[in-house]
Specification:
Distance between the termini: 44 Å
Helix content: under 10%
Radius of gyration: 17 Å
Oligomer: single chain
Number of strands: 9
Shape: globular
Low-confidence stretches: none
Mean pLDDT: 92
Strand order of the largest sheet: 2-9-8-4-5
Structural class: mainly beta
Number of helices: 1
Length: 133
């Protein structure tokens, strides 16, 4: 187990590239939603490789079985996150909103991420638990 000792920190290399990632920031975790259309907002970040940007962001209210395209609401630039928003329909029993991003080279944010003790570079689909009733 690593403890983040002075020796480990001195030996660590900087993280200069990272995997495509996204998150939903609104609605809040465990929000109570009425069935029907709901606005979802968040951010997405490309991998940090040269000439890579976010191409699209997708949101799901059914665990990733179907996806709705979000609208990117900020400028799209290399090395910068983008803001996005979407209107998505939730039904009785919707228990989570899920988001994933697609990078300009076609790379899609994966459903799951390789586990590591400190959680570095986690980029599995972001899930926001909600209650729709």
């Amino acid at each position: 187990m690593t403890e983040g000792t002075a020796e480990e920190l001195a030996a660590a290399e900087p993280i200069l590239e990272f995997p495509v990632n996204s998150a939903a920031c609104e609605p809040a975790e465990n929000a109570e939603l009425k069935p029907g259309p709901q606005r979802v907002r968040g951010y997405a970040l490309a991998s940090g490789e040269p000439r890579r940007t976010i191409d699209s962001v997708q949101v799901s209210a059914d665990g990733g079985h179907t996806w709705s395209e979000a609208r990117i609401t900020s400028p799209v630039r290399e090395y910068c996150l983008v803001l996005w928003e979407a209107e998505i329909r939730v039904d009785d029993g919707t228990d989570a909103l899920v988001v994933r991003a697609v990078e300009s080279n076609g790379r899609i944010q994966p459903e799951t991420s390789k586990w590591n003790r400190k959680g570095y570079l986690f980029n599995g689909w972001h899930r926001v638990p909600v209650r729709a009733q």
